[in-house]
Amino acid sequence: MALVGPNGAGKSTLLAVLAGALRPTAGLVERSPGVRVGWMPQRPAHYGRLTARENLELFARLEREPDPDGAAERLLARFELPADPKPSAHLSVGNRQRLNLALALLGDPHVVLLDEPTAALDSRQRRRLWETVAELREGGGSVVFATQNAEDLHRLADRVVSLSGGAAVFAGSVSEYERAEAERSTCVTT
Amino acid sequence: MRNTLLLLRKDLLTLRRSPALLGVLLAYPLVIALLIGLAAGYANTKPRVALVDRDGLPERVSIAGFSFDVNDTIDEVARNVRLVRLSDDEARRQLRAGRLVAVITVPPGFVATLQGLVRSPHLVLETTTGGVAPRVRQQMQALVYSLNLRLQRAFIAADLEYVNLLLHGGRGTILGQDFDVLGLDGAERLLGELPRGPRLDRIREFVKDATLALDLTDEAIRATATPIQLREVGDRGRTWSLSAQVQSYGLALTISFLALLLAAGALAAERDENVIGRLARGPVTLGEVVSSKVALAAAIALGLGLGVALAFGVVVELGGVTGGEPWERLPLLALGLALAGAALGAIGCLVGALAREARTASLAALLVALPIVFLGLVPREVVPPAGWLSDAFPFAHAVRYFGAALYDTRPWDTLVRETLWLLGLGGLAWVSARLAARRLSA
């Protein structure tokens, strides 16, 4: 599911609330027991003075991964993250975003919430991300992502929810969303 | 607990990888502690001086017909020092440990010699070494001068009575013997009544006796100028800069700044690194995040405090200074350091949670630490409200704990009381910090 909408529409806030990082000021988020949720915030969320591996190992332990070192090793390889002792604050923007995504995938989540996941990725890494999302979906998982990128929408989304001013103003398939957008564009032009 | 330890390990690793920050964190409080400790400890408190009474001073002493209340007299002349009565052994031990700046001993036979009015008895003064010794010596000289002044009045009055007796005659007492004195007036009267002749020889003889008697009083009159002499002996205590007071204040100051700044900065940094949301959404509770920073403050306070105590002890050993029990008491000190570090760390967490940003938190922590420390440095007897306020913060309790742990012969009452204070204050600050930590993920 893709969350779309202009800046300030509430996409990131909704994802943070769904992730449990923010308390809703009104309403309720219900989660089925045993469902694991991974969350990748828009701004990288990891410790800058730890290496990529140390970040992955730490969060793997906190997520109670049975084999934290192994999980960290796998994710390092999968996202082609540097295994050298360079602090993660010194990584490139793209590498930091990949580390951010790798952290979201710790604990084998059933649902992954991604906030603008491809914003800082090059085309190769973007393809890798699409593959990862496809694997998750094929494995029975769900992916909710916020995006401003039309290509992401086509590649990843089955459904689209459009937000404006903190409220959902559209919910439907990608083709329905595109039709609605085209109609709105025509109205504005005429 | 497991999550708290994982975060603590991460924080220690982070700290180790920030050598500049670590250096500033260690050096800054030490410098501040040294400067404030020296200035406040020296200037703001009355020197603590022991009075060792080996003569068994009575409540009242009668000298030359004047009766003195001993305690009142001592209180009146000892305004510039805090005079405490101690046994000989305890006074010597505390002087060596640096808890006293001087010991003044009243030797056996002091009062009897004083009452004899013939010789000046001695008080014995022992002081610490170092920069404070001249000041202490001056104060002791002033004390003895004040005492002499009071006694001098009595002595002079008594001497004048004797002179008066010789001049006018009458019944008097000297050295415990009562006698009648004809007096020069009486002699003159007799001289006038008697016809001239051999009796004149007798009168002349009386004049000789009177002269001899006046000669005898000469020594006593001179004694009134200095009824008591101060004699300093060679036995010396620990230099003031190595004293218990400096060490206790130094440790408390160091860990106060360090724990507050570190905990405040570390908690706010979780938000700065955008990690607080990732943590708080499931794997770690906010309580565990706060606890990890409290544990960090306790661990650093323990490490640094023990380092300072060890360095202090080594200097004392190398200097050949005796007194105190720095090595045997290190485990007790370690407990106090961890407790005080945790309590101060909890306050730091509260500051960090309210400030939300690491830079703001560090500045706010500094601004909070300064009044806490200064309140604790104001002598309770000078400004009582400062003492009451200071009790609401861990600094003053840490100072008392460290002093008792390192130097008191029977420290247990103080240690238990201050431990309870530190636990209570730390617990309160932890709960407040936990509630405020919600702001971090908002």
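The mean pLDDT of chain B is 79.
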